[in-house]
Predict the structure.
Amino acid sequence: MSSRGTGPDFIEALARGLDVVRCFGPERRAMTLSQIASATELARPTARRILLTLEELGYVRVTDGTFELTPRVLELGMAYIGALGLWDVARPHLSALVEQTGESSSMSQLDGSDIVYVARVAVPKIIALRVEIGTRFPALRTSQGKVLLAELSPEALATVLATPSRSGLPEAPPTPPAGAADATLAEIRARGWALADEELAPGVRSIAVPVRDGDGVTRAAMNVTVHAAETSVATLVDEHLPRLRRAASAVEADWAAWQSRPEHPTFR
């Protein structure tokens, strides 16, 4: 039996249920109630109630008086794998991109009128803003934000731009008229990338592309960020953008493969 927790919120019944699941193994694929009670150091009535609950949920089956796990137990492990999601798929490609460019690279998701950084590989360069996982910036002032905004419908875009930023940055420049923003975002959508040239902060220049899942839905944006005094716009577009696009394509391919993994069957 596993060691017990001591916190006030520890749920003993849940711990006992996990003990029952863990007591099965390669040498103990099928066991009687008595064997399970002995292996878990549980009273027979307690072990029986747990086993019958697991059977009703589809995690255990009983045949001729012996109990064994069903393949549905795999769902418990797949929940962890599924939680890794796009960001863990992307991180190796971000690292490879940083090695190629010598510049920081990040991935962000749209949240209201802000972007939120969800993955990042940085290089030790001094820039005007500190960036880490969870950092928020006004979307319209960033390359990643522009890419994500460009994917929205006109109605959704209007709603997003009307939402106050929660980035905590000083008051932003006035939002451009709706027509001007629409035209800019339409151009970004057509060419497939966006540039932010010191719009977020002095010295910060970046370029971004969308990252889509296997269904073609834009899930995030990926960028390369440079110091404006070191890297020109031409270098960013001519040299770093092709590498960025290849990295994003690699993420998309891995994400599509991850999505196409067999779904959990109905076990019983």
About this structure: Helices lie at 12-22, 33-40, 44-57, 74-101, 143-149, 154-161, 178-191, 233-259. The radius of gyration is 26 Å. Residues 197 and 205 are 5 Å apart (CA to CA).
